[in-house]
């Protein structure tokens, strides 16, 4: 499709709710779109009872894990009953639980649940590692697994859910 054929659209920042108390993460729509256009196929429906924070940094070694650890630690320390979920959808560099161990070492690990969804040994960006190791991953599979992980961890993450994206994507 040619760029000139694309229609320019203005977007709003309002949430798209499919059911009361649920939010489709990662999508914005125009306020004047009819309901039939408000469905987004790869959107993830999540409960709004506990916030989900995405930590993003486009390069490696820019502090994503340190920020994630700080958010998780503050949430765990916010009350005696708080619990936190941490998801690392894509991890490269060999040790699939490296970031999770870092988080566990800096807070009450009994109230932190960590999950790494996909990992590759090669310490490069995820798309390149997948290509080099011939372990490809589609966006649909990633979104499905992330949705499953959020739904699995959210009941145990009463205070906060942190999703830390991979670096090296700039």
UniProtKB/TrEMBL annotation:
One of its GO terms (cellular component) is cytosol. It comes from the Eukaryota. This is Dethiobiotin synthase. InterPro entries: DTB_synth_BioD, P-loop_NTPase. GO terms for molecular function: ATP binding; dethiobiotin synthase activity; magnesium ion binding. Transmembrane segments: none annotated. It holds the Pfam family AAA_26. GO terms for biological process: biotin biosynthetic process.
